[in-house]
Amino acid sequence: MSTPAISLAGVTKRFGKFTAVDRLDLEVPAGVTFGIIGPNGAGKTTTIRMVMNIMKPDEGEIRVLGEKMNDRLQERIGYLPEERGLYRKMKVIDQLLFFAEIKGVDRPTALKRLGPWLESMDLSPWLQKKTEELSKGMQQKVQFLGTIVHDPEVLILDEPFSGLDPMNVILLKDFLAEFKRQGKTVVFSTHVLEQAEKMCDRIALIYRSKKLLDGPLREIKRAWRDRVPLPLPVEPEPELEAIFVKVVEESGLSAPSAEELK
């Protein structure tokens, strides 16, 4: 059996009296696209920050690629936080090369890797511009390239589609599909269940700090299909949303509102 890309055992995180993540067990097999899904405030970002060792769990154990997080592992992981951060006065090319350098990638290698991505993202004409001169969508492309320039084995993205226009959402989905084709592991959080339904091999449903369900998406759909209202033929996407609401109801928790699931 291959080593999981990420595993969490009994992970709990509290902030005072508030429990943000409650005894979370999770296993992400290598080479899959894995969605951590749930409404805003469910505990998704806290979970990802603990995986990245940005914050420590109060209880439990986290392993990435079979090890506890360390500096060497950081070079094998690409991480895109929900709150993006770029140096606004720095030129785009200098910024990308800086991201490469801090991940241990030399300039020639970085330029070689970046070339095809820059062309496909239409960023080449902007390389000598300062970041502050770019649109928000273009800045998000720069941030994404800074996340992958070191060719990570595992890509972890926190709400990666937040704030993207429809064209850039399609572009990012295509890039993530390419990473999967290369055999890499992609983990992303989202509160938009339609995205997970279209992209993920496996998912974990998290609600109010607790994991309610996880596993292969096809198996989850098959197991719950007879227990939830069938989606309308002209609107095939909400099946996962219906399952999520049903799981929450059966857990004894109040169902999420429509606004929470948007």
Describe this entry's structure for a reader.
The chain is of the alpha/beta class. It folds into 2 domains: 1-76 and 152-262, 3-Layer(aba) Sandwich (Rossmann fold), CATH 3.40.50; 84-151, no CATH class. It has 9 helices and 9 strands. Strands 5-6-7-3-8-9 form a 6-stranded mixed sheet, sandwiched between helices. Strands 2-1-4 form a 3-stranded antiparallel sheet, covered by helices on one side. Helix 3 (92-102) runs parallel beside helix 5. The longest helix is centred in the middle third of the chain and has 16 residues, at 166-181. It starts with 5 loop residues before the first strand and ends in a 12-residue tail after the last helix. The mean pLDDT is 88.
Shape: globular
Rg = 19 Å
Whole-number total of structural domains = 2
Order of helices and strands: EEEHEHEHHHEHEHEEHH
Q: Beta-strand level of the residues, as a percent range?
A: 15-25%
Contiguous uncertain segments of 5+ residues: none
Q: Name the strands of the widest sheet in spatial order.
A: 5-6-7-3-8-9
Look at the helices and sheets and give the structural class: alpha/beta
CATH architecture of the largest domain: 3-Layer(aba) Sandwich
What is the β-strand count?
9
* CATH top level label of the largest domain: Alpha Beta
The total of helices stands at 9
* CATH fold node name of the largest domain: Rossmann fold
Quaternary: single chain
Ends apart, CA distance between termini: 38 Å
Give the full name of the CATH homologous superfamily of the largest domain.
P-loop containing nucleotide triphosphate hydrolases
Mean pLDDT: 88
| Biggest sheet descriptor | 6 strands, mixed
Fraction of residues in H or I helices: 25-40%
